[in-house]
Amino acid sequence: MNKVILMGRLTRDPEVRYSQGQNGDQMAIARYTLAVDRRFARRNGGDNQQTADFISCVAFGRQGEFAEKYLKQGTKIAITGRIQTGSYTNKEGQKVYTTEVVVEEQEFAESKNASDGSTGGYQPQTAPAPQDASAEGFMPIPDSIEEDLPFK
C-alpha cells in the first residue's frame, strides 16, 4: 500500500501550469513544497527541538485548480496522496532522482482567520455572574416558574 498523510505549511505559492489532457482539454498541474514539522529529542538530554522536512507535492486536475485558486505561501493544509519516485538526466548528463507526493486530497488545516493572523472568529467569553447568585454559584428559582420545570 502506498498512502501518505501530511500536514504542514506551504513554503511558497503553488506553481501552476496547464497541459493538454487526453480529450484535448487543459489539465492543471500544481507543484508546491510542504514544510512538515518533525520533533525529536536531543541525544544529550536537552530540550526537544523542532525542525521541518520539506516535501515536494504535485496536484493534477481539480486538485491542481484548487491549489491555484485557494493555496498560498504559509497556508496550513492536510493532504493525502501517494509517494512517486522518478529520475531524469540533467544538462550535465547526470542522473537525478526525484521523490514527490502525488496529492489525491487536500484541505485546509486551520481557519482563514488563524492563517491571516487575525483574531476574528469564535472567541468564547465568560458570562458575567448574576447579581443574585449565592456563593456556590446558584440562583434561587422564582416561584412563578417552579411548576413548569421538568424536575423537582
Descriptive report:
This protein has three helices and six strands. It is mostly beta strands and 152 residues long. The chain is extended and about 90 Å long. It has helices at 61-70, 112-116, 143-146; strands spanning 4-10, 15-20, 26-41, 48-60, 76-89, 95-108.
Could you give a quick summary of the protein structure above?
The protein is mostly beta strands. It has three helices and six strands; from the N terminus they run ββββαββαα.
Total beta-strand segments = 6
Task: Count helical runs.
Answer: 3
Strand percent estimate? over 45%
* Sequence of secondary-structure elements: EEEEHEEHH
As a percent range, the share of helical residues equals 10-25%
Which strand order spans the largest sheet, edge to edge or round the barrel? 1-3-4-6-5
The biggest beta sheet, please?
Answer: 5 strands, mixed, barrel
Beginning-to-end CA distance, first to last residue: 59 Å
Structural class comes to mainly beta
Give the overall average pLDDT: 82
Unreliably modeled segments: 118-128
* Shape by Cα distribution: extended
Radius of gyration: 26 Å
Question: How would you summarize the topology of this molecule?
Answer:
Elements: E1 4-10, E2 15-20, E3 26-41, E4 48-60, H1 61-70, E5 76-89, E6 95-108, H2 112-116, H3 143-146
Parallel strand pairs: 4-6
Antiparallel strand pairs: 1-3, 1-5, 2-3, 3-4, 5-6
